[in-house]
Design brief:
The complex is a heterodimer of chains A (267) and B (356). Chain A is mainly alpha-helical and 267 residues long. Helix content of chain A is 76%, strand content 0%. The chains are: A mainly alpha (267), B alpha/beta (356).
Chain lengths: 267, 356
């Protein structure tokens, strides 16, 4: 725990030392909230039939979509960003010399990002509720927490695998951007996947974010509990387990290659 | 298989480098994804063997591109050797790297290996946690190190406000946080001014005296630094060891193999200037300075030959008067350059032979 706290404290101190940037990120989130609020006004106040399954409120639907996809994108990119930053700033070599496993360093280096992601998630929901009148009448708190944890864990596995790839190929921004964009479109962040042609819907189901969004919307807007969400929770648990194992194996493989070819600390 | 180079020191070996070779392997996938010219098949090290014993300070010397950094990275377990092994207090660096790393401290000249936005103390505190040092013990150790290195006054300033010398001192503090049994230095005084360099040298010497069982391996390009700090040196070039031993031994070996240098100052006509006389062992004569009638020359003679007599006879026999004559100690940088050059010449000769 002390080690985890040391990483968290280090990153918090560094992040808070950039005061303007720290404050502006919340202003940015408020701007996004306002944007979607006015978009929802354009759509109208009446419940949308295509969103009936989730209560019909366009702003609430969007709010959960963007807040959860934000968390997922951080999960995907945080590890790779940490590795890349440590390579370019030169701190990777010093940390690798310490008697700590690299995956542990990687995991703990992302704690601050995860904390801020969770804060951002809550900020979106509370901001939506208190500033723009989004109603979460019947949410199931514990189901939402379980979904959040499983979603983050699934994408943590992908993120760790991605960090391994970045360790070897160094710059993966373009792949990450395209991949993130495709995922956001395919998983139903901005519209329900039921709008896709029938041949695209099974592909959409292969992305854990699709299940995560579906489950989170149902838990927060319709009050679905563990029993009603059991299919989604089981699928997310499987995703989380498989992706985490694949991620860690892939990352260790990348480290071995890096130590063989001498590219571990290059950038 | 070559045995690791023996030393006369009877202390237990702290680092054993045993037949370490490194060939950067071909990685078709990486070459495709990143860079086609990606270090394919480069032989960086070839059967390097040496030991550093407890309490000993060994210098790892070599020109740029000699393989020092590669070797140091292998010893730091940041790179796998292609063959051979490195043991730190008996622990294999590939198989038991975590345990081995807990006994090592790295002092690098790379100031970017710190977190610039946090203070010197916060940096040290973070790295102390990485080394698993208990909180109270860490606080005490940090305080002692900061005080010994004269950094207490700046401990709570952000690292980015430190001067180069202060950054280097903090790097030393970090390297010694875990009270390591093996300290590795990667060019510890590169880019420091002479005063800071002197301070760091004094501090390293003082630390050696305080921790007499700690082994030190210093990779450096500063030959003066090696002369001052190291009990022995290992000189590598093009990935092979070209000389090892104490600096005195290497200098003596070179002197025996090559020549003795005599500096002679005389007054007399131009004809008195001696010429090379191979028969009597006077290998070369170089004129250094001429000031009116006074001439200073350097005479290179074979060890144990009559070369000096030949030079003096030539001066005296041609009407010159010898004002001063002494035998010069061969400068270590001269020995170093000659050894490196000789290895270049030999490898070129081998390559040329192979072509023909």
């Amino acid at each position: 725990m002390r080690l985890a706290w040391a990483f968290f404290k280090r990153d918090a101190t560094i992040a808070l030392s950039y005061r303007v940037s720290f404050v502006v990120q919340f202003i940015g989130k408020l701007a996004v909230l306002a944007l979607f609020y006015f978009l929802s006004k354009t759509v109208g106040d009446k419940p949308l039939p295509m969103l009936a399954r989730y209560g019909g409120d366009f702003l609430a639907f969007m709010l959960i979509g963007i807040s959860l996809s934000d968390c997922v994108l951080v999960s995907l990119t945080s590890f790779a960003t940490q590795i890349r930053d440590a390579q370019t700033t030169g701190t990777l070599e010093a940390t690798l010399m310490s008697p700590v496993h690299l995956p542990t360093i990687l995991l703990y280096s992302s704690l601050w990002d995860y904390f801020m992601t969770a804060v951002g998630f809550v900020f979106y929901l509370l901001g939506g509720a208190f500033l723009f009148g989004v109603k979460f009448h019947q949410f199931h708190f514990f189901a939402a927490v379980a979904l959040f944890v499983l979603t983050i864990t699934s994408f943590m596995g992908v993120g760790i695998l991605w960090a391994g790839i970045v360790l070897l190929i160094k710059r993966g921004d373009a792949i990450r951007t395209v991949g993130g964009f495709v995922m956001v479109i395919m998983s139903g962040v901005f519209f329900p996947p039921s709008l896709f042609p029938s041949w695209m819907q099974p592909i959409s189901r292969l992305i854990p974010l699709t299940d995560a969004l579906e489950g989170m919307r149902l838990a927060l807007l319709q009050g679905y509990g563990f029993y009603q969400l059991s299919d989604i929770l089981i699928r997310l648990t499987l995703f989380a387990t498989v992706l985490m194992v694949v991620g860690l194996l892939g990352f260790n493989w990348a480290v071995r290659i890096g130590k063989n070819v001498g590219s571990l600390t290059q950038y | 298989m070559k045995p690791p180079m023996e030393t006369r020191n009877s202390a237990a070996p702290a680092i054993i480098v045993e037949n370490v070779s490194k060939v950067y392997p071909r990685q078709p996938l990486l070459s495709f994804l990143r860079d086609r010219s990606y270090q394919v098949g480069t032989q960086a090290l070839r059967e390097i063997s040496f030991q550093v014993r407890e309490g000993e300070t060994v210098g790892l010397l070599g020109p740029n591109g000699a393989g020092k950094t590669t070797l140091l990275k292998i010893i730091c377990s940041l790179l796998y050797p292609s063959s051979g092994r490195v043991l730190v207090h008996g622990l294999d660096l590939v198989k038991e790297s975590l345990k081995a790393r807990s006994m090592m401290g790295l002092i690098t000249c790379e100031d970017r290996s710190f977190y610039w936005r946090i203070t010197g103390r916060q940096n040290l505190d973070f790295f102390a946690t990485l080394y698993g040092i208990p909180r109270k013990k860490a606080a005490g150790r940090i305080e002692i190190l900061l005080e010994t290195l004269g950094l207490t006054y700046a401990a709570d300033r952000p690292f980015h406000s430190y001067s180069s010398g202060m950054k280097q001192k903090l790097a030393i503090a970090r390297g010694l946080l875990g009270d390591p049994r093996v300290v590795l230095y990667d060019e510890p005084t590169r880019s420091l001014d002479p005063l800071s360099t002197q301070n760091i040298h004094q501090w390293i010497l003082a630390n050696r005296a305080d921790s007499p069982r700690t082994a030190h391996l210093i990779a450096t390009n500063q030959l003066r630094e090696a002369e001052l700090l190291c009990d022995r040196v290992v000189i590598i070039n093009r990935g092979v060891v070209i000389a090892h031993g104490t600096i005195g031994e290497i200098r003596q070996r070179f002197r025996t193999e090559q020549h003795v240098v005599h500096r002679i100052r005389f007054r007399g006509p131009r004809a008195a200037l001696p010429q090379a006389d191979f028969e009597h062992g006077l290998v070369e004569v170089g004129e250094e300075e001429r000031d009116g009638d006074f001439v200073s020359i350097r005479a290179y003679t074979r060890e144990g030959s009559e070369g000096l007599s030949a030079a003096l006879s030539s001066i005296l026999g041609n009407g010159g008067v010898v004002v001063e004559c002494h035998t010069e100690e061969v400068a270590f940088d001269e020995v170093f350059c000659a050894l490196v050059q000789r290895q270049y010449d030999e490898s070129h000769a081998v390559a040329a032979g192979a072509k023909s």
